[in-house]
Amino acid sequence: MNERITERGIVCPREELNIERTLKCGQLFRFFNNADGTYSVASGNKTCKLYYDGDNTVIETDEPEYFARYFDFETDYSRIMAELSEFGELREALACGGGLRILRQQPFEATVSFIISANNNIKRIQGIIERICARFGGESGIAPFPSREELSTLSVEDFSALGCGFRDRYLYNTVPLLTREYLDAIENMPQEFAKKELCKLMGIGPKVAECILLFAYKKTASYPVDTWIFKAGKTAELDTPEKVHEYYSRRYGENAGYAQQYVFYYNQQRIGG
DNA sequence: CTCCAGGTTCTCG
DNA sequence: CGAGAACCTGGA
Q: Domains, chain A, ranges and CATH?
């Protein structure tokens, strides 16, 4: 869109990238509040720093091309919002969601992270992930996310000791299967086929699969139904997560994933504090 | 103390 | 196949 690559990284109008809205809606877990009010974000072995400079948002990084893709600058969010605005029930969520962007995260990191996310809360998820990264990382700074090979060296007991809880065996069983070939193949599969494929892995059910498809592969027809989205969408008719998913993913079509994030963020802010 | 968190797996009728 | 219970853990 209107972003530009500069000496220090990427700069774009503030309304095109709202830092808090993009980072605090549970799509990524490795972001950090810095003492000076800026935010740091880690993705794989890369990092960037975000802050506002007047009317602009600045993404400070040595890897501008990587983070331009990561922050999804190829998508025109004004068009998405315009298309979604025809759905009356989204009015308030859209009004509160300007500048929220869906990230293109690394598939391996996203898959591991969302397996950990099951029946868990964001704060604890972040703690577990940081302990996992620290185990393989250096002494100072933000540790890179470990590779499949590194994580495959851990035992069930290791995952448990890192605080993974009952997800320890999920990770132990599934991590070794997440090869580059496997993850690349998912990229090229149609939505429903990819979802079915991911659900074969231990620790991945429908919700986690859709999070992976949406937040790593940007398959935007995904509509992950978690406890928040279910609470927001349930009616006398739509009384199960499956029915809520069926109804809204059909209703929003290819924009379902965007709608889901606006609704999630809005409800998280309003109810969850 | 109980309840819940970006759910999935296991068990049983 | 569908419904219910069980599940690590830490904060409210």
A: 4-74 (3.30.310.260), 107-215 (1.10.340.30), 227-272 (1.10.1670)
